[in-house]
């Protein structure tokens, strides 16, 4: 095993067993175990591949370290290291998630590192199936099966204004997704990204408008052009344990034979809590790409979650994505097959933990 990876997990185990020490350095060890047993089917008719499978999945289980230190009355340093942990195969593979260092004060928040963009964050708040097979990114941020937006990017600088009357502005600039230092020659494309989101979050209502531009992302002959996306998000707490969410999105495609074409999509979900049981449902519809017939898809999910404490729940989810004849949308961490329906029945466990 790589010694650096082993050191990370030894440190995690040490801090987790010593919450007092973690508090003494004003830090926190936290994470989530998210395991599921999934039965999936993709209607494959090939004689060389299976059409169904039973699998055990880690669903973006994670381990993180974060903390802060007050430097003055109006300035604190903040930091976070978070990694995805593959619990299903036991090899301790480390995959970087939001990891950064930064400064915070009454003037706002400034951080830099490997970060989810404001475009991604804008709708993650309403994703009631986060990191399961029915994650909303089955439709949102996806164009005919390819991830175009809702990304986590390295070399990213992020600024957030203070929240005023429930309103906040988030702005990020990814300097270059391929380079860390000044290159010794002109690089094309530059592959930088600008992402902006304005949100309102107060009382029972949350709304956000986000836009993102990927510079030099689309190849046009010997030159490169930008592609962009826009997302409108809403969530309403209707009371009596019921919440509903909505995403409307327009994005352009930056790769493949449909380079430069656009598609729109709508995603709806609802959750109703009754005691310790929460019933959830979602519906998503991706339209055809411009000038590319039958490249849309329909997605839906139904589930029941049973909570046993604030941090522990079990669930069962049935979810499916029905592709049009030329579409290849899938499920979370599952590629779709052209023109086929891909489905999954999941039995899952979610357990959060923290030293605080």
Which band does the percent of strand residues land in?
over 45%
Rg, Å, rounded: 21 Å
CATH superfamily label: Porin
What's the CATH architecture name? Beta Barrel
What is shown here, in short?
The protein has 356 residues and is mainly beta.
Explain what the structure shows.
With 356 residues, the protein is mainly β. The protein is built from three helices and 20 strands. The strands form two sheets. The chain has a 16-stranded antiparallel β-barrel. Strands 8-9 form a two-stranded antiparallel ribbon. A hairpin with a 2-residue loop joins strand 13 and strand 14. The longest helix has 14 residues, at 3-16.
Please tag this protein with its features.
16-stranded antiparallel barrel; mainly beta; 356 residues; single chain; 20 strands; two-stranded antiparallel ribbon; Porin; 8% helix
Break the fold down into its secondary structure elements and pairings.
Elements: H1 3-16, H2 19-24, E1 27-41, E2 52-57, E3 62-72, E4 75-85, E5 94-96, E6 99-105, E7 108-116, H3 118-124, E8 142-143, E9 146-147, E10 152-160, E11 167-174, E12 193-202, E13 205-220, E14 223-239, E15 242-252, E16 262-274, E17 277-286, E18 297-309, E19 312-323, E20 341-354
Antiparallel strand pairs: 1-2, 1-3, 1-20, 3-4, 4-5, 4-6, 6-7, 7-10, 8-9, 10-11, 11-12, 12-13, 13-14, 14-15, 15-16, 16-17, 17-18, 18-19, 19-20
